[in-house]
Amino acid sequence: MNAVTRPATARRPPSGTDSGLAAQILDRASEPGWPPEPGWLRAARRRAAAWVEDHGFPTTKHEDWRYTKIDAALAVPMGTPPEGAADGGASVSVGDLVGPHLSGARIVVVNGRVVPELSSTGDRLPPGARVEALAGALQRLDGRLEPSWLWRAGDYPHALRAMNDAAAVDGVLIDLPPGTVVEDPIEVVFVAMPAGQPSWSHPRVIVVAGAGAGATLGETYLSGPGGPAVTNALTQVHLGAGAQLAHHVLQGERTDSFHFSSLEARLAEGSRLSSRLLATGGRIGRHEVDVVLAGKGADVDLDGLFLTGTGQHHDNPVLVDHAAPGCTSRQLYKGVISGDGHGVFNGHLVVRPGADGTDAAQVNKNLLLSERAEVDTRPRLEINADDVACTHGAAVGQLDPDALFYLRSRGVSEREARAVLVSGFAHEILERFGSGPIRRRAEELATAAGLIVLDEDGRSSGAVTAATTRARRGGRPQ
Amino acid sequence: MLVVDDLHASIGGTEVLHGLTLEVPDGEVHAVMGPNGSGKSTLAYVLAGRDPYQVTAGRVLYDGADLLAMTPEERAAAGVFLGFQHPVEIPGVPTMYFLRTALNAQRRSRGEEELGPVEFLALVDAKRRLVDMDRTLLDRAVNDGFSGGERKRNEILQMLMLEPRLAVLDETDSGLDIDALRVIAAGVSSLRAPNRSAVLITHHQRLLEHLIPDRVHVLAGGRIVRSGGADLAAELEAHGYAGLDDPGVEAFPVSTATAR
User: Residue A354's pLDDT band (boundaries 50, 70, 90)?
Assistant: First the structure.
């Protein structure tokens, strides 16, 4: 069963950055404010930190990091980030950044720690369902969360993933007993507020959905001024038989921030995960997805839209592992690269021996809007079973001159025509954010990144977005 | 309205129009007919300002102004409309959005108020009924998955929405059934007015049975080689274009016949 080869991180002698890291992290465990922890967790942290010390951080010699150089992020101190909502001295408050509350539960995580004053788990959760701060859950549930820390222990894809095991102290636990369905979206907003103290944070989300359970999870990543900040986030999703999760990620950090995230999901029989990403922010944004279709007939649907501008680098490593028969997977990633931006799609589709009846599609399309814009796309198939239907494709192109002329011949200026075509390209992904409040958030983020949001009734986007924002602010008390 | 005077145009270094002369007065509908490869589409594209086509000699006046000096969007705002032979697909851009963007862009450039959503929807609804176009098509991306007939109806819908002063329809009738042909003829007829003109570029006479032109011109070998009244179309249908692209055939003196 060694179909998936995870290349070992290039070893290198410990440098100033990672020397004694395990000791640093473990020393911090005795600092005031660090919550008391169960023994298994202390042991897991020690092992993860030792792994980092042993393997070092990824360099561009590492195949999966070939295009993504993280030295600038590693130059940011890894010490304890400012506690909680460190607004002090910042010109923007966390409250302003996170915006109005959507319906349903919302947890606000600042610098890797939940801020209770800004969070509400909502009063509409079905009986038995829990949405809570991870720090408290770790203490209370004790051993029940241990498998989450053992998921990759000793077999880390890279040191950043190990760092989350070593240093994650808080985040969110979403625990759905069998059969519970949470109707309203659960929203988690991660804010990096360096406020003049550049630092790393390692938030973590764990979703445990029992058989037949279902929920919608929205993750939004933002950052405040006074950076740079480094966010090294991990979301782990365990779906039981027939469970369903709709997962939406909005990455709109400032362009001096560094964003590394991993989505790890394991899907049992007949379960379904749909996950979509909109990335507009960060100097570096790396959005890793690693899905194992572990049970018969599981289904995963992955979409990504990255809007990569000048000075930005977006890397999207996606691994879908068909480990059981009769599963379906679909990936559609689109990149819009402008200025001297650099986009990367690194899709890897693996069909294990015995995973017959696999139906998989992997597509990456990119639009380069300037001569300096660059994209690297590597869709890869690794098929070790018969009776499978796998398709993959990648395209890199520029705006269609015929379509551009068509619009101009109707009176639309060249500038606006270009914007409309870019929006048309992006629309296919944006509309997969559904029709609810998360879609509106996605549209606001896209608009802030300069994209026109198309409306099927032909209304202009700016006005519509502003109107819905006002209506929501006015209509729903926070 | 339109004066094309000794127009020479080329694409990719090959000259396609070799001194085309044509005049379309206010309020008239003219047909330009000709065999494949005679330069019909080149004429349409040059009038609309398509990039790779290069005008090497001659001039085009639109209401006395130098049309060739204008960008495509300026021509559109000034009232020139090109109905495409092959309407372009624009994935992801809803037809409704496309229509409103175009209409309001033209209104803005003419210094007019943009049309609000309610007025716009009412206008679109009225016009799409005229071309017998299903409402659901408007929510779909521009021409994306449209049949040939639906695309052509969409061209006419755009023309009716934008109310151009000079409509140039390039083979809008090709590949259409008789119902669609009637819809297109009715659409063009509804715009007939003393201050509007149209140029129907076509290979066949069919459209002209439903839409009687004021003049018919024969384009062959990159020049207008004959001009006449509506009955010329029937004559061409009967006898074909054979021999007309012979450069030895003297063109009718069109410019003097219709000079203002």
Answer: very high
